[in-house]
Amino acid sequence: MTRPAEPAGHEVPAMRPAEPVAWPHGKSAAASFTFDVDAESAVLFGNPAAAASRLSVMSHQAYGPLTGLPRLLRILAEHRVRATFFVPGYTAHRHPGAVRAIADGGHEIAHHGYLHESLAEVDEAAEAEILDRGLAALAEVAGVRPVGYRAPMWELTYDSPRLLAERGFLYDSSLMDADVPYELDAGGATSIVEIPVHWGLDDWEQYCYLPDISGSGLIEDPAKAVSMWRGEFEALRREGGCFVLTNHPFLSGRPARAAALEGLIEHVAGCTDVWLAPLGDIARHVRGLALKPRAIPKPELRGSPP
Ligand SMILES: [Zn+2]
Q1: Per-residue pLDDT tens for 270-294?
Q2: Crossing angle (nearest 10°) for helices 255-269 and 222-238
Q3: What's the gap in Å between 61 CA and the centre of ligand 1?
Q4: 173 alpha carbon to ligand 1 midpoint, in Å?
Q5: Ligand 1 mean position to 42 CA, how many Å?
Q6: Does the reported pTM lie above 0.90?
C-alpha cells in the first residue's frame, strides 16, 4: 500500500501509544479510588461574588467536606483501602479539619488548583501562581507537599507538564489518551508520570445537578452508575490496565451513592489479581520502570480549510 506523501514543509512528530505496564507483586492490573474535594471552589471560580451569595448552592457544595467526606473515610477505613484525595487550596483553607482528617486516615493528599480555576484560557505565569498558591495552602493546613496533581476539570495545558516538573511533582492525572500510566515528556530532559482518567469514570456526569450551574436535571440511579464503572473495571482488569475512578464527596458522599460505591470498593479490594493503591504509589512504581517519555505535540494548524 502506498502512503500519501506528507506535504512539503510540514514535519509532523510521530505520536506513539503508551506501552503495556508490568504491575508489581505479580498483579495483572491496577486500580485506584480517587476523590476530588472541590466543595465550594467548584462553583466559586467562575463568578465568585455571584456564587458566594447563593446560600443553597454553597450548602450543596459544603455537603462534601461536612457530611459526605466523613462517610467516605469511614467506608475506606472499614475496607482498609487507601485512596487519593485531590484538594483545592481553597478547600483546605475553608475546611481545614476535613482536610486534616483525610491525612489522618492515611490517604494521599494531592493538588487540585487553588479555587478550582479553569486553565483553558490562563497564561503560563497565572498557572504557575495558582500552582504555588495551592502548594502553600496544603502545606499550611495539612503539612503536606503533594507529589500528585490533577487539573480542575482535567483541563491540562501544554505548559502544565513543565511547570509541574519544575516544582518536583511526580505525576499528573488529567489526560485521556491511554489505559495505562506512562511517562509524559515535560520538556528538556524532564518528564512526569501521567495516570489517565476518563469522563465515563467520573461521578459528576452521573449525579451533578445544580440549576443554572451544572447538569441537565437527570440524576442517575447509583446502581446504574456503579454498574457502568464496574464494567470498565472488569474490562481494564482483563487488559492489564489501570482503573482510576473519580468521585466527589459532595456527590458520591450521599447515602445511597456511598453505599453503592462501597459495594464496588469491596469488590475491587477483593480481586487478588488487581493492585489497589493510591495514585502516588502507582506513579512511583511507573517511575521505577524507566519508560521512555512520550511527547504529545500540539496539533499543527495548517490554515483555513478550502
Ligand atoms: Zn475538581
Answers
A1: 999 999 999 999 999 999 999 999 9
A2: 20
A3: 12
A4: 12
A5: 6
A6: yes
What's the 113 CA to ligand 1 centre distance in angstroms? 8
Average pLDDT over residues 226-237: 98
- Which residue in this structure is represented by grid cell 456503579? 226
From ligand 1's centre to the CA of 257, what distance in Å? 18
Task: Quote the ligand 1 centre to 300 CA distance (angstroms).
Answer: 29
Residue in 102, 36, 106, 33 with CA at minimum distance from that of residue 266: 33
Domains and CATH numbers, the chain: 32-288 (3.20.20.370)
Q: Ligand 1 center to residue 153 CA distance, Å?
A: 6
